[in-house]
Amino acid sequence: MKALVYEKYAPDDDYEKILKVMDVPEPTPKPNEVVFKVVTAGLNYDDIWGMRGKPIQIPMPHISGTDAAGQVVAVGEDVSTIAVGDRIVSHGNLSCRVCVACTEGREYDCRYRKIWGFQTGPLWGGYCEYAHLPEMNVVKIPENVSYEDAAAASMTMTTSWHMLVGRAKIQPGQTVLIMGGGSGMGTFGIQIAKLYGCDVIATASSNKLEECLKLGADFAVDHRKEDWDKQVFTISKDLAKQKQSSPGIDVIFEHIGGSHWNKELALLKYGATIVTTGATTGYDVISDLRHIFFKGTNILGSTQGTRSELESGIFWMSKGKIKSIVDSIYTFENAVEAHTKMLQGNLFGKILMKPG
């Protein structure tokens, strides 16, 4: 079968040197696995990390791809809930299912956890014609949800749901700040916060602000401007007057890091929450501790999410309450262009790839 493979790292981000479409063996299912024909797969930033060999080295030769959707073509003898012909999407968080964390419903904290298509291999990911996963790591797709929408939602929607619902426990009427509203993560963050009845302020670059508003954000601010945080605070003051509450932000949805971090801490109300899952613009940040201890700030880490959270998001997609935003679609042969676009960040929503 055809697959997108690399056999060495590209720390200089020169993907053309390493990404090759190759012929590799077609998988057969283990007793607990399903094999599915990949219709489409979504790019994530861990694809970039994998090709750099940072922050961790990964198995070689390597097939990336954590988010894949397609139709089941074979099942193992122990599989009972998935059948040949089912339309499915991957849940890329591979966990042991038997440790304390897993049995408490925290499979994202499993010490044996691996991210499919990033830490797995050799040659085990979603950028191929046929992929295989344990039965517990696939979710059925409703008929009114497309393969493209499901693949675009797999990791980013699940992670966003876990951040806002599972970790921050957002409530109706809260003021929520979605950083990077034009990213795959941000587009879902906006919609989930609105689903829960929150007032949403999104930040993005200037060319994405109108799209954030169309997606449901109540306000949109250019976070590339030096005074973006002052604009956000002014908006929060106006909202506070309407709600007869104090100005500031109740929950900040953070995944970009860098120089914005300390400004974000300053924007929080007393007893408010910032939940973070990434640092695409830099992880070495400065924190003014006064914003933390004096205001009783809750700083929550978050990574991926549970299979049930993916199912919840897919359910609301089927009801038309959440939608995937697809920026562009490429074939495996155009993977260099796709990954370069993701690295440069000039996109709104998710980038997808198809075998051909």
Automatic annotation (TrEMBL):
**SMART domains xref list:** PKS_ER
The GO terms this record gives for MF are: oxidoreductase activity
Signal peptide (UniProt feature, chain positions): none
UniProt xrefs under SUPFAM superfamilies: GroES-like, NAD(P)-binding Rossmann-fold domains
Q: Where is the Enoyl reductase (ER) domain?
A: 17-353
Superkingdom, according to UniProt?
Archaea
InterPro entries for the chain: ADH-like_C, ADH-like_N, ER, GroES-like_sf, NAD(P)-bd_dom_sf, Zinc-ADH_QOR/CCCR
Q: Keyword Transmembrane on this protein?
A: no
Question: What is the protein name given in its UniProt record?
Answer: Alcohol dehydrogenase zinc-binding domain protein
Recorded source organism is Candidatus Nitrosotalea okcheonensis
